Amino acid sequence: MELIKQEVSQERWIDIPEEVFDIYRLWRPSPLFRARRLEKALDTPAKIYYKYEGVSPAGSHKPNTAIPQAYYNMKEGVKRLTTETGAGQWGSSLALACNYFGIECKVYMVKISYQQKPYRRLMMQTWGASVVASPSDQTDAGRRILEKDPNCLGSLGIAISEAVEEAAKRDDTKYALGSVLNHVLIHQSVIGLEAKRQMEMAGDYPDIVIGCVGGGSNFAGLAFPFIQDKMQGKALRAVAVEPAACPTITRGLYAYDFGDTAQMTPLMAMFTLGHDFMPAGIHAGGLRYHGMAPLLSHLVKLGQIEGKAVHQLEVFDAAVKFARSEGIIPAPESAHAIRAAIDEALLAKDAGQQKTILFNLSGHGHFDMVSYDAYFSGKLQDYALPQEEIDRAEAVLKDYPATE
Ligand SMILES: *Cc1c(COP(=O)(O)O)cnc(C)c1O
């Protein structure tokens, strides 16, 4: 109930509970770095800063919301949480959080990731969660999909349907979502609030704030506290970076749509590629979601946020350049933000301009080395979404309530 209250809250400020802070303290405040070696490698006059969220035990920003979600559920007597996970980042974060608060955790993991990422599954199991490959035969939603296509490799939309169905059918179980929703974005704003203080300590302020977007939570977490300044007149660009294979903001429709394939969630006004969208198997699993956070979508409509789509190969190119200058091996998702930051730094160089760039390094890539292997061995390909897929989404959504 507390999370639902936050979802519809009109408050400017919601305090972080002391019990949540106690766990945040294990890795927060997360560091803000100036990427001096990357600047040098690019020979750019631009200053590049990044906020590093890979220092959490799960290796990404996702525990920022998993911890308070598990906490509020525990406070209200919930015994079990179900959820879905794509690349395994959210599932491992919720497994970590449930473990701290004595809650059972069951994770429906998109089948292709379950097969490609056994180490993320083992991480969840180490923290005590049980993990099933989705689509599974444990829910009606899963069985319906398997009947049609026994070899279905799954999608986030399908896995959400399975996790929601199980929570709806059991009294002791609730469902937790790791992105998209308002309360998740609120929890992630700890990133941007810290970054503002840290930029102040560095005596600087960004001209451009950049983040990668799957459901939009790490980007919003960093950018929204800065966009508050922008709404009060500060000059600032906010750039949300997505894969060209899943171009929700740059090519999707702004429409009322479901958050899941089986149409069990409420309708949300958002940028979407359609709830039945089947993303290509690109190696940034966390960015293969059909929708975009309603708050972020709204700000795109208002012109406060720009969308940018990038291709897989240029993303890995940026990831490797970053690893060879700054040392940290980025998650393929985060490397989308690095790509855009490098592009902006190179534009500044061409224009001979001093620019200050801040991006979110949402996680490390230690469990994604198979993707790096595919890149190094020349097996990765670029993939742009065909127009027919956009037309299909349009056909699916044409009878839904109008957004404006
Ligand atoms: C899940 C994930 C993302 C994408 O999710 P958002 O809600 O858009 O932040 C990005 N980076 C990493 C490392 C992730 O695990």
UniProtKB/TrEMBL annotation:
The pathway this protein participates in, as annotated, is: Amino-acid biosynthesis; L-tryptophan biosynthesis; L-tryptophan from chorismate: step 5/5
Q: Which reaction does it catalyse?
A: (1S,2R)-1-C-(indol-3-yl)glycerol 3-phosphate + L-serine = D-glyceraldehyde 3-phosphate + L-tryptophan + H2O
Q: What Gene3D superfamilies does the annotation carry? A: 3.40.50.1100
Task: Report the cofactors.
Answer: pyridoxal 5'-phosphate
CDD domains the record matches: Trp-synth_B
Q: Which residues form the Tryptophan synthase beta chain-like PALP domain?
A: 26-363
> Which enzyme class?
lyase
Enzyme Commission number, as recorded: 4.2.1.20
* Record keywords, A-Z: Amino-acid biosynthesis, Aromatic amino acid biosynthesis, Lyase, Pyridoxal phosphate, Tryptophan biosynthesis
Per the record, residues carrying N6-(pyridoxal phosphate)lysine are K62
Function (record text): The beta subunit is responsible for the synthesis of L-tryptophan from indole and L-serine.
Among PANTHER family, the record links this protein to:
TRYPTOPHAN SYNTHASE, TRYPTOPHAN SYNTHASE-RELATED
Which family, according to UniProt? Belongs to the TrpB family.
What is the annotated quaternary arrangement, including any partners? Answer: Tetramer of two alpha and two beta chains.
This chain belongs to which protein, by name? Tryptophan synthase beta chain
Instruction: Tell me which species this is from.
Output: Candidatus Moduliflexus flocculans
